[in-house]
Each structure stands twice: as C-alpha cells, then as structure tokens.
Amino acid sequence: MTTRRSRPRMATLVLVPVWGVVLAAYVGTMLWTAQISFTASRLLPVNEYVGFDQYRRLFASARWLVSIQNIAIFGFLFIVGCLVIGFVLAVALDQKIRFENTLRTVFLYPYAMSFIVTGLIWQWLMNPGLGIQKAVQDWGFESFRFDWEVDREMALYAVVLAGLWQASGLVMALMLAGLRGIDQELWKATRIDGIPAWRVYLSIVLPILRPIIITAVVLLAISVVKSYDLVVALTNGGPGIATEVPAKFIMDHLFTRQNIGLATAAATVMMITVAAVLAPWLYLEYFRRQRVGGAA
Fold this sequence. Notes:
Pfam families: BPD_transp_1. With 296 residues, this protein is mostly helical. 73% of the residues lie in helices and 0% in strands. The chain folds into two domains: 25-60 and 247-271, no CATH class; 66-240, Orthogonal Bundle (MetI-like fold), CATH 1.10.3720. The chain is built from 13 helices and no strands. The two termini are 37 Å apart.
C-alpha cells in the first residue's frame, strides 16, 4: 500500500521516460541544429567547422534582413489586430443579440481552416483577374483596385488581412468566455455609480481578462512563427521578396538551395530570438509571482 509521501516519487518515476523523449527529441535536435550552423554543410551535414561564417553570410543577405523586417511588421499588426477585433466582437456578442450562436459560429469558423486554405481563399479574392476587383469593376466601378497580392507595397498587408480573417474568431471566443464569467453584480454596481461603459471595459474588464489576453497572445505568437504556410499559399514570398519571412527563407535554403549550414544558422537565430522573448515573460509571469507568493 503506497503512502502519501511515495505518490509524488511514483509520479516522478512515471514521467522520467517522457522527459527523456523531450530531451532527446527537442533539446537534442535543437543542439544538433545549432552545431550544424557552425559547419560548411551544403547538401548533407559535414563536420567541417567554419566558425561564425554562416552567421556573417546570413546577416549580409538582403533577403534575410527583409524577412526579419516582414515578420516584425506582420507579427505586430497580426497580434494587435486580432486582439482588438476579437475583443470588439466579443463585446458585441455579449450584449445578448439575436442569432448569437450563428454569428459566433461564423466568426469562429475560419480558425478551423489551415493557413494553406486561408491563403488560397485570399489569393483568389485578391486576384485582379477573377477576384473582388474584377467583380466590382464589372459592376461599373472601373477605378476600383484590390490587387494587394501583386502589389509590392501592399502584399505584406494582404498577408496580415488574411491572418486577421482566420484568427480573430479564436480571440473572440476566448474573450467572450471571459466576459461571460464576470459577475453580473459588477455591471449593476457600475451602472448605479454612473460609470461609462467604455471606462468599465478599459479600467475593470480588461484587467480581469488579463490571463485570457496572455493566452491569446501566446497562441497568436505561435501562429506568427508558423506563418510559412500562409505566405506560401497567398504570395509565395512575392512579389520579389516583398513578403519573405524567416520560415520561408529557412525552408528554401534547406530543400531548394541545398544550403543546410545557412538554413540552420537562420533557424538557430529564430530559436534564440523566441527564447529571448519568452524567458523574461516566463520569469515575470510565473517565477517572480511564485517568489512573491512564497514571501507573502
């Protein structure tokens, strides 16, 4: 018969194989990728070490620098846009409007699609020869333009628009669940005090929804890193390199250009960047909070 003290030990022993798989499959492959980035590997990995030559070539590449700029712009607009649109939709649906279930399904449905499907849909919609532009011009508005996917200045915003269409429904669902969990007595008290609704949402509701907002940001940030599918399906990185992103740069050099060394160098830079962003956030959200709670 097991005692209460032995239960945590048993649980730890059961998890040992899982941690072994995690260390081998994730940490091991990450270290192996970083190790290859210091070699002159081309088609196949080799042990000819060249120091930081691959990283110098990487940051001397205009294509890589453009991809970094694009992912920063896309990430900011995508995350902020999804949070704003999702919150506004959630507030609207929280007013007990008619056909709420139908509208909630309509708004959330795009998230059930993959980025590939989303990219293809918006590629057709923004195609000058058969999409929205042609339909509106056929109605007599010949000056109308909606050809963002072939416009170097607007192509990146076409990717942002497609991403917003897909992911805003997820944020709406998360926010709506949070709004429905707020005590109704809070709303009654604010009405009695005569506090404007917009101020209630900004000063009271948003702080209450902070854990949900953090969850939404994490999910959206993961989508930003995985934006390869959307870009390939919608613009394939074009026109030119106007919508190039780091993930596409890596995949092209890994499989098309047979330059494993440069591809792994780019992958290592992405890994370090993500870790540099996550580490302070994890510390502030979890470890620091646990220390404050323990001290209290």
